[in-house]
Structures are given as structure tokens and as C-alpha cells.
């Protein structure tokens, strides 16, 4: 039986675990705490609590290793990835699938971006992800990388911001933004495990980028609310947090042809409208 180990078994990992079970694989989710392991167990997902920040983490054998755990929030490296690779150095899995971020491309001036574009991360969080990719480049086993943008789905939408009427950036000043529905990301991870060639990299996006405010307007309309007010970039620079402003400084449009063509992946939610219809609570 194929042994699938999912490191960082959160929302996406749980979906992967269920898809793995559908295929008859033996899936184990790795989480940080015993409480999280108990929650997975109550969802009928085998789980093990492992702290990747401790020396020599005790990780189970794997045929397929899904690495979804984020790096630490500080520094310019990913020591958690280093710890995982060290743990499997003498018992490498058949394939390692890593979900990273499209942030490793940095600002592309709104250009369409394929997987061949050189990495140019401009934020610390993206530099940590780029460092994880560099570690994987030296890994002797088979590796497939999924570079994901914003992940959305049920419970992963800015509904309260929309209800409060928080302003969004005017489209004229807005960068392009990209997204992937969480169910499609899980399906992409399974497809990468089953069919992705060694060292393949995929933009795991729906291929339908929009200005930043489009999602907020679409959510508002589905909730029967007025469109959010808009502000200029200068007003945003004055009023928004540094974290939120960092997303204004990068603009790119992710090309997903390789994901669909090479893996034969048919997205269940190929655009924002179809994904929101499946993600928002029903009105009534």
C-alpha cells in the first residue's frame, strides 16, 4: 500500500488526505500539536504530532511525501524544510510534493509569468520560500513543486471585511492578483504525486487573474451588499498596514497552461465566479 505522509496537514492537507484515502493510500497527517492531531483523528485522518522546530523530528516512512508546512515567520531560510529533508536522507520517498508560493517571482510588472521565469523574491516571507526551493534542488529524490498564489474556499474569504465595508484599492491603481480554490490545489497536489515528472514546477493557479478589488466586489454582490468603497494607492499607503501594503508592490499574472496540459488537470473551479459560488454560505 502506498504510504502518503502530509507534513503540515491543515485545510489543504486534509483534502489531500481524503483524496489519498479514495485511492486506497495509507495517509498520515503531520501536525505540530497533540490537539491538532486529535482534531484530525476525529475527522478519521491518521495523525502524528511532530514539532519540526525540534532537533531530529521523528517522521514516519513515506512513499509519497507532501510538504505543506510553512517556514518560520522570521529569518531568510526554511529550517523546517531542512529538518524534513535530513529526516528522510537515508529513506527518501518516491516523490516529494511541495506547495510553495508564487511570491518567489517577486514583482513582474503585471506580466504573464510562466514557471521558467527567474526567481526574484522581494519580501522576507517569499525569500524563505525561495530558500526552501533551493534546498529541494539539492535533494537527491524526485521533487515536484507547486507555486500557489492566494488560496480561497469555504471559510477562507474576507467576508467580514466586506460586511464592514472596508475600502479596496481602485482598479486603476491595483496590481494583478491570482488565486486557486483549495479543492483544486489539493487535486493538483495529488496529480503532481501521480503524474508529475521529477523536478517539475507548476503555477498552481486558476489562470484567471483579476485586479485586487474584484474578489471583494464579487463577494459583496453575492451577499446582497453594496460594492466596497475604493481608495487610491496614495490613500492605501497612508492607511494600510505594512503587511497589506506588501501585496500592492507585486503584480503578475500566472500562466497555468503547464499545470493543465502536463498534468491533465481539469480545474473544478476555473475562475473566481465558479469558486465563490461553491464557497460562500447560501443566502436565505
From TrEMBL:
Cross-referenced Gene3D superfamilies: NAD(P)-binding Rossmann-like Domain
Native source organism of the sequence: Spectribacter acetivorans
Top-level taxon in the UniProt lineage: Bacteria
UniProt protein name: NAD(P)H-binding protein
Sequence ranges assigned to domain NAD-dependent epimerase/dehydratase in this UniProt record: 10-204
Spans through the membrane: none
Amino acid at each position: 500500500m502506498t504510504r502518503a505522509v502530509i507534513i503540515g496537514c491543515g485545510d489543504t492537507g486534509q483534502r489531500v488526505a481524503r483524496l489519498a484515502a479514495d485511492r486506497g493510500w495509507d495517509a498520515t497527517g503531520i501536525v505540530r500539536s497533540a490537539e491538532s492531531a486529535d482534531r484530525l483523528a476525529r475527522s478519521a485522518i491518521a495523525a502524528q504530532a511532530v514539532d519540526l522546530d525540534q532537533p531530529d523530528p521523528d517522521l514516519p516512512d513515506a512513499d509519497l511525501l507532501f510538504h505543506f508546512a510553512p517556514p518560520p515567520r522570521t529569518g531568510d531560510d526554511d529550517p523546517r524544510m531542512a529538518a524534513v529533508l535530513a529526516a528522510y536522507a537515508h529513506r527518501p520517498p518516491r516523490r516529494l510534493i511541495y506547495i510553495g508560493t508564487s511570491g518567489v517571482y517577486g514583482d513582474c510588472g503585471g506580466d504573464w509569468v510562466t514557471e521558467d521565469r527567474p526567481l526574484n523574491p522581494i519580501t522576507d516571507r517569499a525569500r524563505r520560500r525561495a530558500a526552501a526551493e533551493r534546498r529541494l534542488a539539492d535533494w537527491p529524490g524526485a521533487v515536484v513543486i507547486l507555486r500557489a498564489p492566494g488560496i480561497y474556499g469555504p471559510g477562507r474569504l474576507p467576508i467580514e471585511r466586506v460586511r464592514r465595508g472596508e475600502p479596496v484599492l481602485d482598479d486603476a491603481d491595483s496590481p494583478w492578483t491570482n488565486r486557486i480554490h483549495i479543492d483544486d490545489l489539493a487535486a493538483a497536489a495529488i496529480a503532481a504525486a501521480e503524474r508529475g515528472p521529477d523536478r517539475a514546477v507548476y503555477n498552481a493557479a486558476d489562470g484567471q487573474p483579476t485586479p485586487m478589488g474584484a474578489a471583494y466586489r464579487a463577494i459583496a454582490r453575492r451577499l446582497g451588499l453594496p460594492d466596497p468603497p475604493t481608495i487610491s494607492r496614495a490613500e492605501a499607503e497612508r492607511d494600510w498596514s505594512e503587511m497589506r501594503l506588501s501585496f500592492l508592490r507585486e503584480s503578475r499574472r500566472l500562466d497555468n497552461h503547464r499545470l493543465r496540459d502536463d498534468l491533465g488537470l481539469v480545474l473544478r473551479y476555473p475562475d473566481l465566479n465558479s469558486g465563490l459560488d461553491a464557497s460562500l454560505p447560501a443566502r436565505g
